[in-house]
Amino acid sequence: MRIAQIAPLHEAVPPKLYGGTERVVSYLTEALVGLGHDVTLFASGDSRTGAHLEAAWPHALRLDPGISDTFAPHLLLLEKVRRVAHTFDVLHFHLSYLPFPTFSQLVVPFVTTLHGRLDLPELQPVFDMFPQAPVVSISDSQRVPLPHANWLDTVYHGLPEKLLTPQLSTQPAYLAFLGRICAEKRVDLAIDIAARAGLPLKIAAKVDRADEAYFRGVIQPLLSQPHVEFVGEIDDAQKSGFLSGARALLFPIDWSEPFGLVMIEAMACGTPVIAFNRGSVPEVISHGVTGYIVDDVTGAVDAVTRLDMLSRTEIRAAFVHRFTARAMAQHYMSIYTALVQTAGSPALRQAVVG
């Protein structure tokens, strides 16, 4: 099948360091190529892929301090895709609602995976205006604010099976926080949990420009505590060692996280996750198997005392069973196939007959 993957331009695909949506787009794209499909990736020019790369902007926007209007490059991206849309069997967007006005008017099947939060009041009128726009959720909990959107399915994120692996020579000795520093992810609570549990905390996280004031005013003063080590951003090559060395990943979120990629990154390394019961957490973490789901700091501290009851081998096995990139790609292929069959694509009818 001829498939277009259309990524945001904020980060390269895959991101050089932190990045959620673009990272998932990379994993999906490479898995689809591995399944034998003809895939074109529309992304920033500094992206790396085994698919055909169509550079919609020379480089990732986050790394260019001269970019003030990030909407303009995305407008060019959409027009670039529109002009060649007829050459594909299906278009898969990762740009939230931006494709709806233009691509709802075309005959080429398209679908949008919604990666972000949907509990913003201004989104409801958009989805009311485009009730037939086909969308995919990354967790069932993500759908709650927009129950009447045209949901085709829920597809959980996946990682390449061998991207992150347990480092058996590493003796787990600390608690870990991985991701992005912002008010909703509550690294301050992670610091508190580690202090109460009597364990060191290593923080591997990026600070976006939008969160710099929060970091300086709230988090930076906490980093001087003796049990805290701020590592900064890390890349994929560093994650296996970082996560394998942790007794658990702390995920004390204060909002309805749509998925939480760091949870399955920890699972890939056999590392338990202690997560607050918000958003997708109950869909990703199997309580008492791959980690513990708790309600507050006290519950998290108690969960630390029960980490030895969990099998890191079973945690890795749960990841392989549920959250690989290949499984994600196969799930999306079933969605693409249904879309193209509904649209009556000659290319797919020939492939199905063959």
Automatic annotation (TrEMBL):
InterPro entries from the UniProt entry: Glyco_trans_1 (IPR001296), Glyco_trans_4-like_N (IPR028098)
Domain named Glycosyl transferase family: residues: 170-297
Coiled-coil positions: none
GO MF entries: glycosyltransferase activity
Top-level division of the source organism's lineage: Bacteria
Domain Glycosyltransferase subfamily 4-like N-terminal: 18-119
UniProt xrefs under Pfam families: Glyco_transf_4 (PF13439), Glycos_transf_1 (PF00534)
Name recorded for this polypeptide: Glycosyltransferase family 4 protein
